[in-house]
Amino acid sequence: MSMVRDLSLADEGALKIEFAGRRMPVLQALTERFAETKPFVGHRIAGCLHVTTETANMCKALVAGGAEMALCASNPLSTKDDVAASIQRDIGAEVFAIYGCDRDTFYKQVQGTLAVKPTIVIDDGADLTSTIHNDYTELLGDIVGGTEVTSTGVLRIRNMSNAGVLRYPVFPTNDAATKHLFDNRYGTGQNTIDGILRATNMLLAGSTFVVVGYGWCGRGVAMRARGMGARVIVTEVDPVRALEAVLDGLQVMPIAEAAELGDFFVTVTGNRDAVTLEHMQRMKDGAVIANSGHFDVEIAVEALRGAAVGRRELRPNCVEYRLPNGRAVVLLAEGRLVGQSAAEAHPAEVMDMTFATQSMAVQYLVSNGKKMEPGVHPIPREIENEVATAKLDAYGVRIDELSEGQHQYLNDWRVGT
């Protein structure tokens, strides 16, 4: 039994899904191929993903390929209720996703998805995977494999594998170059800035913008903030990433020092307590804090709420907390993914590559999953190359090919100085 807010919203959602689909040519081509070859007939797919127009187009590809599919949300604030309604009505996947639901309802939605008794698991944050391994072990026998799309989820999956508890093979989609080089950098970079602007309508030019974490997402956020005219400070715990930020021309310092300088703070670490109450107490009056990591643990939100002597909702997704020292900080989107919660997620153009990579990984698992050992496996390079080539074709870009002599040179050891 599906859980959507209102099926009457489906017409509006369908238009948005169609508009996004036009900008996803690689996934569209895969949808046509899957509709002809039907590689997923007999398979049941459970997905825990951001319920957005881009996700809807991947669902369309998988269902076109013959899959029975159930979908739940990977974040209660990223769900688009009209899109959920259209996926349920028009695409034929069973949907369990309602915007703004509480934690108990969120996990009821996860459990509802598992009623499909999946043979394939598509996850974003590993909530579905961990729930299966903790509470639904009877399903493990039928599951041939899974995929995990985000860096935080990949960390959890690797931890499960290292602990010896992961019971089926998983492809870490986030590790694919066709995902993290584009989705994380350009998608997160754009939608984080978009979310901050929608939530605050503040000017970035001339501000001091602190990026907490300089992985691929942090690189993207820093690049876009700098492009908007902000002075960017990076904080890091990894010396190599910190050095890269320095050589990229950015200022690098500890978060305790940056706390006193920033006008905007964005966490993109994939870890907890990147910004603590102590840091927030040192911030300027009116400093804006946002998170662009998958889970709402990067900012010490509960500690902030507990210490605050006043709270005001200034705008949608924009809450001011007054601290005992007389200064206030402004928290966006409850400390959840600001680009998903206050804006509209990643643009379709980058999700085209992510979901094409993911869809082809699912196809590979259907054919090969039973022969693979449980654990985390790199996505085959040929999948990445096929996706990148198709994307270049869509842009009308041609590249060179190696000659026979170049192939021989690359595979020989005898030619030297």
UniProtKB/TrEMBL annotation:
GO terms for cellular component: cytosol. Residues 184-345 form the S-adenosyl-L-homocysteine hydrolase NAD binding domain. The lineage of its organism: Bacteria, Bacillati, Actinomycetota, Actinomycetes, Pseudonocardiales. It is found in: Cytoplasm. Its cofactor is NAD(+). PROSITE patterns: ADOHCYASE_1, ADOHCYASE_2. It is an enzyme of class 3 (hydrolase). Substrate binds at T52, D124, K179, D183. It comes from Longimycelium tulufanense. Binds 1 NAD(+) per subunit. SUPFAM superfamilies: Formate/glycerate dehydrogenase catalytic domain-like (SSF52283), NAD(P)-binding Rossmann-fold domains (SSF51735). It holds the Pfam family AdoHcyase. Transmembrane segments: none annotated. SMART domains: AdoHcyase, AdoHcyase_NAD. Its EC number is 3.13.2.1. It catalyses: S-adenosyl-L-homocysteine + H2O = L-homocysteine + adenosine. Belongs to the adenosylhomocysteinase family. May play a key role in the regulation of the intracellular concentration of adenosylhomocysteine. GO terms for molecular function: adenosylhomocysteinase activity. This is Adenosylhomocysteinase. The keyword Thylakoid does not apply. Pathway: Amino-acid biosynthesis; L-homocysteine biosynthesis; L-homocysteine from S-adenosyl-L-homocysteine: step 1/1. One of its GO terms (biological process) is L-homocysteine biosynthetic process.
